[in-house]
Design a protein that fits this description.
The chain is α/β, with parallel strands linked by helices. It is built from seven helices and nine strands. Helix 6 links the parallel strand 6 and strand 7. The structure holds S-adenosylmethionine. The site of S-adenosylmethionine has 23 residues, from helix 2 and strand 2.
């Protein structure tokens, strides 16, 4: 037994919050490992929205989830998470009114492939959430670059911060937003610090914020920031 490292810690937190039937967001799906973990936690009745800016990441996630026979509960889209609000609203055919979502059209089961017969149960779950202005029980941002690929495409504060703020709006009361931040690559420290500055200033009446960091290691293991939405 050993202390959990970044990704393991993020999974421990996600597992604590997510139940069968929940919805979850993976805002940087990469090779699909976090998406797979979420898909297993939400079960057949749940849904995972997986987003990545890179075609290669989308393909890798698609392939992993297909191999694991989990595609039916996952929607994978290529996009920049700095526009995650629009991506979510489009994918779930939601339109925001002043204080609540409305279901604009029936869900996109007609898009075929991995949607199967999810339309009805998805619709009823969304209807349940309409008045709460929320959708996801949990979201994960595993920052940095795609492992096994080039380091040219990388998360940056300019896109990460807007994406985090938008995603938090879609988290249910009692839900959680988890960030795994790497500080060993150029720009990583600054990105991590900006996430900490943002999360550390969230109102404590509405949010609990946790920061996990190893403080005696030179290899700079990833840090975890978790934001629990209290109300
Ligand atoms: C550390 S990897 C994610 C690992 C992944 N969660 C997994 O389990 O394999 C970071 C990912 O963020 C993606 N990314 C970088 N900038 C992005 C952006 N603006 N919007 C969405 N994804 C982005 C990269 O393409 C990369 O795949």
């Amino acid at each position: 037994m050993s202390l959990p490292q970044g990704v393991e810690m993020s999974h421990l937190i996600l597992k604590r919050f997510i139940s069968f039937g929940d919805y979850a967001l993976d805002a940087t799906c990469g090779n699909g490992h976090d998406t797979q973990f979420l898909a297993e936690l939400v079960g057949e009745e749940g849904q995972v929205l997986a987003v990545d800016i890179q075609e290669e990441a989308v393909a890798n996630t698609q392939s992993l989830l297909k191999n694991k026979n989990l595609l039916g509960r996952v929607r994978i889209i290529r996009g920049d998470h700095k526009n995650v609000k629009n991506l979510i609203e489009e994918e779930f055919s939601l339109k925001t009114n002043e204080n609540s979502f409305s279901l604009e059209t029936s869900l996109k089961s007609e898009k075929g492939n991995n949607k199967e017969n999810e339309s009805n149960k998805t619709e009823s779950k969304i209807e349940k959430d309409l008045n709460k202005k929320s959708l996801f029980k949990a979201a994960i941002f595993n920052l940095g670059f795609l492992p096994g690929s080039g380091k040219e495409i990388i998360t940056t504060p300019e896109t990460t911060l807007p994406a985090l703020k938008q995603s938090l709006e879609f988290i249910t009361s009692g839900g959680v937003l988890v960030i795994v931040a790497y500080t060993g690559h150029p720009g990583g420290k600054e990105e991590c610090q900006q996430v900490l500055d943002w999360a550390g200033n969230l109102d404590s009446h509405n949010y609990n914020v946790l920061h996990q960091k190893y403080i005696n290691q030179s290899a700079e293991p990833p840090q975890v920031i978790a934001v629990e939405k209290r109300t």
